[in-house]
Amino acid sequence: MLIANALLLVAGGAAQVYAATSTLAPQFSPVFPSSMPKATGVVTSYNPGPYDTTTKLSTARLSGYPEAWASPPTSSAEVKKVYNMIDWTKVPNAPVRKQDSNGNWVNDSDENDKYCWWSSTNCVNPRASYLPPDIYTCPNNGDWGLNYDDGPFNRYDDDEDEAALENKYAEPALYNFLAKTNNQKASLFYIGSNVVNYPAAAKRGLNDGHHLCVHTWSHPAMTTQTNAQIVAELYWTLKAIKEATGVTSRCWRPPQGDVDDRVRAIAHQMGLRTILWDLDTNDWDMPAPGGGSLSPAKVDKDFKTWINNFKSGKDKKGHIVLEHELNSATVNMSMFWMPKLQETFNVIPALACNGIQNPYWEEGWVYPTANVAQPTNTATPTGTKTTTSATSVPTPGTCTSGSYGLGKGDGYNGACSASAMVLSIP
Ligand SMILES: [Zn+2]
């Protein structure tokens, strides 16, 4: 299946307004204030490696942003400017949706799904003809579209117990692991609040050859937001990524996949292609800070099933598989399965398996569409450091007897768990 790709239609041009050659609605690159500091310590084109795998990063934060993890105000001049750049005749009048206190939808469907509401029907083909289809899978058999939501994974500095447990998994732990594990690249969906609180980790993500995409400022269900709130959620995240790393993302993922044609139309005009998934690890729901109560064994079981289904020929598709860099449990689970995935699938960033080479507005960025195992140059800048905080990287070590995946395992030690590695995988 060929997926028409709006991102491919413009080769990283700096044009402010992109008039589509197709019938798609025009897009624009948000205009940031000229007073915004220029990003430092970052590459200005795709960096094939080798990569900086030191474990110390600056803990300096970006300033001048709305409160982190709160719904950002819509009244600022910056947000209003972007709001006024949108052609509101090209934004369907879908309702601002409501959830009850348990997060259940008050009305969970539209007549004939006329706004292509993913949370209701998993719709990925907008009804509005001027919007491109969502990207949700890898078109080629055996491609494992790698992507992580909710990053960059910050350190904890407000809770000593959690810091002791979690900080060894905070970035750059996962990025260093990927660099050392077949030079693996991923598409990263960043929360603006996390970028502002830990911009050095976002710089590392970009410098390590990953794609940076938007995952909103405060992680709401986006169909519950007003038009102005949607603009603000996307704008502040775009700005945080731009200030930290110098790039303006052209891809985004709605939290919980909650998107309809109203939300899509605003995101599209702001330059953002909607990226979903077709396999879900549910890793976010495992017990850990910010997580839930799902047994890690259940997540392990899904990974095993997907591997077995591909090896047996039962599954002949490619997939975008939802994972998170959210906490120790999700990072640990990903580290555990990565080597086995790499033996089985063509593990490749979710954008790359869809042929997307230009995920930013800035010129000079061309990403490969394959995962290149061997780095070929040494163009890695050093970051601007003010204060630094050391992380101890989880070390591969002896398997804990009886450990299984993670949860019962211990970081990389969990990854040694013989029981899980040999269980049902031929
Ligand atoms: Zn998320």
UniProtKB/TrEMBL annotation:
GO biological process, any = carbohydrate metabolic process
Q: Name one GO cellular component term.
A: membrane
- Domain NodB homology spans what residues? 142-359
Which PROSITE patterns does this one have?
Answer: NODB
Q: Which UniProt keywords apply?
A: Signal
Q: For this protein, what is any one GO molecular function term?
A: chitin deacetylase activity
The protein in question is named Carbohydrate esterase family 4 protein
Gene source species: Mucor ambiguus
